[in-house]
TrEMBL record:
Swiss-Prot/TrEMBL keywords: Cytoplasm, Exonuclease, Hydrolase, Nuclease
InterPro entries xrefs: Exonuc_VII_S (IPR003761), Exonuc_VII_ssu_sf (IPR037004)
Function: Bidirectionally degrades single-stranded DNA into large acid-insoluble oligonucleotides, which are then degraded further into small acid-soluble oligonucleotides.
Lineage of origin: Bacteria, Bacillati, Cyanobacteriota, Cyanophyceae, Nostocales
Record organism: Cuspidothrix issatschenkoi CHARLIE-1
Oligomer status and interactors: Heterooligomer composed of large and small subunits.
Compartments reported by the entry: Cytoplasm
Record protein name field: Exodeoxyribonuclease 7 small subunit
Similarity-based family: Belongs to the XseB family.
Coiled-coil spans in chain: none
EC number of the protein: 3.1.11.6
SUPFAM superfamilies: XseB-like (SSF116842)
Length: 78
């Protein structure tokens, strides 16, 4: 049996899972596109979405580095 690491569900940066951050970004985009927000709120929500995107990008870069290291380790073993 292979034990799976729950890395995908770990915190991108400031808490919450990667998936939760993506869902929140999608919600923000829907509110902005739907015209539900005042202009000042659009800017605030947009800034939040950008911050979440940065956190998600950082999370994915870290995971890519881990994958690259694992691949390198496998290649060194051969």
């Amino acid at each position: 049996m292979v034990k799976r690491n729950n890395a995908v569900n770990s915190s991108p940066t400031n808490g919450g899972s990667y998936e939760a951050k993506i869902a929140e970004i999608e919600t923000i985009i829907s509110r902005i596109e739907g015209g539900e927000l005042e202009l000042a709120d659009v800017f605030a929500e947009f800034a939040t979405a950008v911050e979440y995107l940065k956190e998600c990008d950082s999370f994915l870069q870290q995971r890519q580095e881990q994958v690259d290291l694992l691949i390198e380790t496998l290649q060194d073993d051969n």
